[in-house]
Amino acid sequence: MTPRREPLVLDARTDAGPDRFEFHTADGVGAADAFCPGELLALEHLWDRDLGRLRTVGARYGVGGVVLADRASPVTITTPSARAAALCERNAATNGVDATVEVATGLGSVDGPVGEPVDTAVFVPEAYTPIEVGIRRLRSALDSLAGDGALYVAAKPETGLGRYGDALAETASTVSTVRERDGWSLLRATVPRSADGARREPDPPFDRTDATVDGVDLDLVTAPGLFAAGGLDHGTRLLAETATIGDGDRVLDLCCGYGSLAAYAGRVADCSVRASDDDALATAAARRTLAANDVDGRVVTADCTPEVTDATFDAILCNPPTHAGDGVLADLFRGAADALRGDGRCWVVHHRALDLADSLAAFGSVETVVSGAEHVVRLARR
């Protein structure tokens, strides 16, 4: 992972524990340049309280779990991003904190039960989190609470404060605003109960769509917030129509999203299929997409390629997250180049207005093989 040059520093406000905390950040993780004000608001309210069993949901790089660890035991930091999880682990170690870091969607209907109930849960949604997914995470966090536990949600109107407040009012036993600053509000909610005393578990968030690519019918399982959740995008379609996959090939769908390229490869050739994405919700959808298309493949949640270093590939198919920053793209394509077999091919699609020459410099040769109306397909080799 390509790190930021200097860590972010946060001074402590209690006598116990360290005098200050340091946090490493990186491209592709929210609030990489400055602490999230919502997280700071939650810390301000919580760091002189006894928190018991603590679980943070949707962590960026572990601020809440690390800073509050002196007031809680045990501490579990969860995030849907493998890249963020690596930063959380690094920052816990840097600050001498004993915490468990989990890559999880934050959705009980997908991840399953959290195990032992927690006394305190903290959730600060990202600005780009789809409200539907955020509300499902909020409800799952409520379901994880012990009987006298509390969930703290920090948000502002731009990140969905009104919708989150309404969802808590419908689901939680009690809801109150306990702190406000600079447009941010910290809400406190207590455990939900249904009429018969059972917890409320929302249904899984998955939707289904279909696509036909070069005469191959695909059944695709998507979820809110995933790239092209409403249906197969033009760039991915162009890449699938362009790439050559043969029987016996080892194929990697890198940045797989909901697994459309992996499913296509498995349908057009008798090949070995793997798929990888940074987002746990994407990989949960990709597993379901492969199953829906009777494709036998392995799907992993991973930051770029570390989780697939036990194999090399004849073909890598990649529609990269070009919005994630140069650091992410550099890591991604360095790993892809290393994962290719000697005569392997890496097929990359991107918007034709973008120049990815620097990011693709890890490859020995790169050529444009197809130019569409909006996208180009590049073929890279070692």
Attribute tags:
382 residues, alpha/beta, Rossmann fold, 2 domains, seven-stranded mixed beta sheet, globular
Rg from Cα: 22 Å
Q: CATH top level of the largest domain?
A: Alpha Beta
Strand order of the largest sheet: 5-4-3-6-7-9-8
Number of helices: 10
How many beta-strand segments?
A: 18
How many separate structural domains?
2
What is the CATH fold-level name of the largest domain? Answer: Rossmann fold
3D shape = globular
Q: Which CATH architecture of the largest domain is right?
A: 3-Layer(aba) Sandwich
Domain Methyltransferase small: 21-187, 218-376
Keywords: Methyltransferase, Transferase
Pfam family, one: MTS
GO molecular function: S-adenosylmethionine-dependent methyltransferase activity
